[in-house]
Design a protein that fits this description.
The complex is a heterodimer. Chain A is an all-alpha fold. Chain A has a single domain (65-280), classed as MetI-like fold. Chain A has twelve helices and no strands. Chain A has helices at 16-26, 29-49, 61-71, 75-107, 110-123, 132-139, 143-167, 171-179, 184-221, 227-236, 240-268, 273-280. By secondary structure, chain B is mostly helical. Chain B folds into two domains: 1-30; 34-255, Orthogonal Bundle (MetI-like fold), CATH 1.10.3720. Helices cover 84% and strands 0% of the residues of chain B. Chain B contains eleven helices and no strands. Chain B has helices at residues 2-26, 36-47, 50-83, 85-100, 106-114, 118-142, 146-154, 159-195, 202-211, 215-243, 245-255. In chain B, helix 3 packs parallel to helix 6. Classes of the chains: A mainly alpha, B mainly alpha. At the A-B interface, helix 2, helix 5, helix 6, helix 9 and helix 10 of A face helix 1, helix 4, helix 5, helix 7 and helix 8 of B.
Chain lengths: 281, 257
């Protein structure tokens, strides 16, 4: 990726003539990405302008972006974004905390691990959207209904990773800790937790993405406020440009959440080999 | 002895949970929670028979076609994008953005463009489930060992042979991880696409039960979706074990187990 790591001439995968060119383009790969985005927007604009697609089905890029700029000045828009982010954050926090605690408890006992395995493997693949009718029945269209879906979906992502992580603890280190007389809490604090942390962060990263999907889904299907509900309203009201602008918004929220979680991951694991090696490269 | 122990571990907790559920629901008349008996009868009455053919099979078929297309498209495009560096840097930010869009918001858009029909439902699944496969394939193809690639070139492997014997096997573990995520998303989208503007299918039927307060039937639908989810995951693991058996063997050797 970076120019330093691709510099040795023997690692080239392309034929020689393009290698020298590639070294030139390796620097502005961000620029190429920007060109990609611009190219996409121009194609979108042209497809609509040329009449290939009816504007009432797919408005031009400029229309959607203008609409996005105009709704971004309204308080209702930011309220919806705030609502979505709050649901996401609460859902991820609750499921993450529950999964980490349960994962550490189950993972550190061989008996519990074996006894819960079949149940976990059965409950995990159940699509959380199957719970939508139940959520509506129990909570109506409130935030709790959406939260139920978010928590259920994100919980398994984190739990599985925590279990893998706890299982990955070096047995020699564990025996050493035991022979030095470290108790359960001390072993969890100084041995299990640091060993499992990379896995936990992976779980949180996957969970964060799934939590956003389920947050928007809940808002879209159940209602109760947030960007998803705004999309449903725009769709039933025939406000097509607004609907597209809101969909773009969900994508931007998704990108922002990805960046945020990656930053948290790098910070939490800054002592870990994988991150330190990345920093050197 | 060990087999008995294994079975005891596998069924112990589920049986305990069902017993607990039975004991708790026996003496109450809670409207929301049926007893295990009620649920079982509702399950048999509702899903075994006509409805299996009219609602369950079409849903599962749409899921299979949609995710199948998504996997094929994702791998094909991923191999191309992953092996051409310029294309990759050109498209990467775009793809990151598309991946970040929660797939269910595509449902209203595709209803608008295609209309509320079978094609829309399959399209929703394809468009939503393609991203994990695509991005994982790109990542997998990109991280193929360069020494391996050089060796392959030295031996004069190119084109289809190079793809089949070097690139795809190296990227396979990563692709499998992507496929696993795609299957989960495909299942979600199968249900969601039927909750909007539909008159048949699993998602539609379950919501219908909920709206008409047919609680045991609604629960039986949730259980059915769960069973489908479990079946898909078991099927996937079987295929994965089969296709990637060399990979797991290698990992076991490395871990010394």
């Amino acid at each position: 990726m970076t120019p330093t790591s691709s510099a040795p001439p023997s690692t080239g995968t392309a034929p020689p003539p393009s290698r020298s060119r590639r070294r030139g383009t390796a620097v502005p790969s961000g620029l190429l990405g920007a060109a990609g985005i611009a190219g996409f927007l121009v194609t979108w604009e042209l497809v609509v302008r040329s009449g290939l697609v009816e504007p009432q089905y797919l408005p031009a890029a400029s229309t959607v972006l203008a609409e996005l700029a105009s709704i971004a000045t309204t308080a209702a828009f930011w309220e919806a974004v705030g609502w979505t982010l709050r649901t996401w954050a609460i859902g991820l926090a609750v499921s993450g905390a529950a999964a980490i605690v349960l994962g550490l408890v189950i993972g550190s006992s061989r008996f519990l691990r074996r006894a819960t395995h079949s149940t976990v493997e059965f409950l995990r693949p159940i699509p959380s959207v199957a719970l939508i009718p139940l959520a509506v029945l129990l909570y109506g269209t409130s935030m709790q209904a959406t939260l139920l879906l978010v928590v259920y979906a994100a919980f398994w992502q984190v739990l599985i990773q925590v279990l893998y992580g706890v299982g990955d603890v070096d047995p020699v280190a564990d025996d050493t800790a035991r022979s030095y007389g470290l108790g359960w809490t001390a072993r969890v604090r100084y041995l299990v937790w640091p060993s499992a942390l990379p896995y936990v962060m992976t779980g949180v990263r996957l969970g964060a993405a799934v939590a956003l999907i389920l947050t928007i889904t809940g808002e879209l299907v159940i209602g109760g406020g947030g960007v998803g509900t705004q999309i449903a309203l725009a769709q039933s009201g025939g406000a097509v440009p607004e609907m597209y602008a809101l969909v773009v918004t969900t994508g931007l929220i998704g990108v922002a959440i990805n960046l945020l979680v990656r930053a948290v991951e790098r910070r939490a694991l800054r002592w870990h080999v994988s991150v330190r090696r990345e920093a050197v490269a | 002895m060990t087999l008995v122990k294994k079975t005891a571990y596998a069924v112990g907790l589920p049986l305990a949970l069902i017993a607990l559920w039975w004991a708790l629901s026996r003496n109450t008349t809670n409207f929301y929670v049926p007893t295990p008996n009620e649920l079982f009868t509702a399950f048999v009455d509702t899903w075994i028979g006509e409805r299996f053919r009219t609602d369950v099979l079409p849903s599962v078929a749409r899921f299979a076609v949609g995710t199948g297309l998504a996997i094929v498209l994702g791998i094909a495009a991923g191999v191309w994008i992953g092996s051409v560096r310029t294309v990759r840097s050109l498209l990467e930010p775009m793809l990151e953005f598309f991946r970040a869009i929660p797939p269910p918001v595509l449902v209203p858009i595709l209803i608008l463009i295609i209309g509320a029909n079978d094609r829309m439902k399959v399209m929703v699944i394809v468009v939503g489930a393609v991203w994990p496969v695509l991005l994982n394939t790109i990542e997998g193809v990109r991280s193929v060992d360069s020494v391996l690639l050089d060796t392959a070139r030295t031996y004069g492997l190119r084109g289809a042979t190079r793809l089949r014997t070097v690139i795809l096997p190296s990227a396979a573990p990563q692709i499998a991880a992507g496929v696993r995520q795609s299957l989960a998303i495909g299942l979600i989208l199968m249900v969601i696409s039927e909750m909007f503007a539909s008159s048949s299918g699993l998602g539609f039927t379950i919501v219908l039960f909920q709206r008409s307060f047919a609680i045991p039937e609604m629960w039986s639908g949730i259980v059915l979706l769960g069973l489908i989810g479990v079946a898909v995951s078991v099927l996937f693991q079987l295929c994965e074990r089969r296709i990637l058996h060399w990979y797991y063997g290698q990992k076991e050797v490395q871990h010394g187990r």
